[in-house]
Specification:
The protein is mostly beta strands. It has a single domain, classed as Quinone Oxidoreductase, Chain A, domain 1 (Alpha-Beta Complex). It has one helix and six strands, in the order E-E-E-H-E-E-E.
Length: 91
């Protein structure tokens, strides 16, 4: 499917472009983002301060949205659920 994403193609750049997104895998969830932010780690990656980052890259792992699709093994969420996204581990 085609979506719009803020993509960094080279150090210091950020542009909204159309990109292709694969359907969710078994353990993945597709979320329609309603609001998002760029944290300090994302900003460091955009500006080239994270040496292992390979461009192009789509940053932005914090936000809120609505679940649109769930993978075949996802049991704790369903389409229509409202979610908050952040980095970190659970359980």
């Amino acid at each position: 499917m085609e979506i719009r994403a803020a993509i960094t193609k080279e150090k210091g750049s950020l542009a909204i472009e159309k990109v292709q997104l694969a359907e969710p895998k078994a353990t993945e969830v597709l979320v329609k983002i309603v609001a998002s932010s760029i944290c300090h780690t994302d900003a460091a990656g955009i500006h080239g301060f994270v040496p292992w980052i390979k461009y192009p890259m789509v940053f932005g792992h914090e936000g809120v949205g609505i679940v649109e699709q769930v993978g075949s093994t996802v049991e704790s969420l369903k389409p229509g659920d409202r979610v908050a996204l952040t980095c970190g581990k659970t359980g």
